[in-house]
Amino acid sequence: MSLKMLSGFQKFDGEAFFRDKEFLLTKIEDWKEGSDQEHMRSVGTKVTGVIYTDNTSYGKDIKGVNQGESITFKVRKSVSSFENWRPFQTTFIADKFDKVSIWGDYRNHLSVKVPSLQVLQDNN
Question: How many Å from the N-terminal Cα to the C-terminal Cα in the chain?
Fold first, then answer.
């Protein structure tokens, strides 16, 4: 038997996934949305970071499997809120989430919306 519509019942535990991860900032850009190019408007900032530290336990004593992978966080704050953040110098964490969902043909991508991100260190 092949069941249908099962993906709507899967829940991703974003808090557990991000709990033991630190990110190194790689890029900050304006987050725009709209029905077409003419109606695009800024709704926040996209902050991309590479997983700098991954101490998450993935079972059977496996750790660090996602270290070096990039994730883009959508934050409903203006780009100017991140004016002191420097690429490849600022480390941060995500600890509060509006929505985290898995997507893609192989279910190996994340869409992450957060209210804010927390700076750990800025190596200026």
Answer: 59
pLDDT digits (tens, 9 = 90+) for 51-102: 999 999 888 888 889 999 999 999 999 999 999 999 999 999 999 999 998 8
Q: Is residue 1 part of a domain?
A: no
Contacts of 3 (CB under 8 A, 6+ apart): none
CATH number for the domain spanning 62: value is 2.40.50
Range of the domain at 15: 10-122
* Nearest CA-CA partner of 30 in 98, 71, 81, 69: 81
* Rounded Cα gap, residues 42 and 49, in angstroms: 20
Nearest one of 11, 10, 18, 12 to 96, comparing CA atoms: 18
Alpha helices, DSSP H, located in 7-46: 14-18
Place of tokens 């043909």: 105
From residue 112, how far is each of 2, 27, 30, 62 by CA, in Å? Answer: 30, 15, 15, 24
